[in-house]
Design goal:
With 207 residues, the chain is mainly beta. It contains two helices and twelve strands; from the N terminus they run ββββαββββαββββ.
Length: 207
Amino acid sequence: EVALDLASGVTGLDLRTLEIGSVGGARLKATGLILGGNAGPDGSIGVEIQAEDPRELLRLAGLIKGESDPAWAAELGRTALKGTVAVRPKDGGIETEFDLNGTAGDISLAITGQIDGGATPDATRISGSSEIGTGSSARMAALVGLAPVGDDQQPARLVATFDGTPGQGFRSDLQLNAFGGRHGYRGLINPFVPGLGLDGKLEMRAT
């Protein structure tokens, strides 16, 4: 079930309504206005997602492949997310800002970021921060693809900041409170190269 109300012309794009419903009980709604001009696009689009179980919507978006669910997608539960994407001209290029906030089951999520287009994709600067909270440390471990040894019910929190380019990597700061300890990594990460381009300092401390 899809409903679309869209106007497009020389002045830009007016997305009055985009609604996708009945995807495994999930609904997606987007509205916004992007103006066109000699300097480039300028405007924003807001997105809202509501779902009893978001996995079918994630499959539709290509984030889950096949019939079996990855560990991070298990028991996501009732989901409510809101986000925006804003674009504007900047120094002859385009600057994009984005944010996403909400919950999925016992997971809380807050992400903000900025993309400054470079002369080449490798030179595009990407920066941002994210905070993820879970009701248990075991749930956090599953979320990042690890198999916890025990079922630790202590809440967990992951805070990350990053700034860099695909060509040079990203200066990152990751801080994780889980399983009764505080763990951190500060240094380079590059998800676009083998081994993630890790070059930094890992800290692990029990509390």
